[in-house]
Amino acid sequence: EYGPEPRAILRYAAMMHDIGMMLNPSSHHKHGHYIITNSPLSGFHQEQIDAVAALVLFHRKSLPRPSHPVFTRLPAADQAMIKDLVTVLRLADSLDRTQTSAVQKVTLSEPSPDIALLLAFSAEPIPFETWAVERTLGGTPNLFGRRIVFERIAA
After folding, report:
1. CA gap 103, 37 in Å, rounded
2. Cβ–Cβ < 8 Å for 73, 53
3. pLDDT tens digits, residue range 11-34?
4. What is the pLDDT of residue 1?
5. Contact at 8 Å (CB) between 102 and 123?
6. Which residue in 41, 55, 76, 115 is deepest, having the highest Cβ count within 10 Å?
7. Over 51-96, what HEC string results?
């Protein structure tokens, strides 16, 4: 659905989402936002840096909402993109919650009307990541307006 620019923004946000951990683990998303906002990112213009910083901020705790000052400063097109991409970033972060690479492989299939995520785990029983995904995405997880279904597959 998105072209190369949003993918690059998501990739950078994914690489940098925990950059604030050294300052304060419980508020690392806020510190990460500050660090990114106040640092030049080579190859990115200011609107792209703001989008990366917003993804880092919203990857944890509160979701982007129209009343949030960081969110309202973004152009309307970027606001829509951030709403979609933050779900992807939160999902990815949840899939490595224990930082032990418990999820060996993720395969995406799109049977109508759902999106199926096929998860291959390295351990039995199903690790903490399963709980983290469900907790992060809520009771009825969805992505791009479609329900996400999780299935366990052989590693």
Report:
1. 31
2. no
3. 999 999 999 999 999 999 999 999
4. 61
5. yes
6. 55
7. HHHHHHHHCCCCCCCCCCHHHHCCCHHHHHHHHHHHHHHHHHHHHC
- Report angle CA 15, 11, 61 to the nearest 5 degrees: 65
Strands 103-109 and 146-153: unpaired
Contact 33, 54 (CB under 8 A): yes
Q: Is the dihedral of CA 21, 24, 26, 31 positive or negative?
A: negative
Q: Are 93 and 59 in contact (CB under 8 A)?
A: yes
φ/ψ (deg, to 5) at 145:
80, 5
Spell out the alpha helix ranges (H) of the chain.
Answer: 4-16, 28-37, 46-58, 69-72, 76-95, 128-137
9 or 88, which is more confident? 9
CA distance 57 to 64: 9
Phi/psi of residue 43, nearest 5 degrees: 90, 0
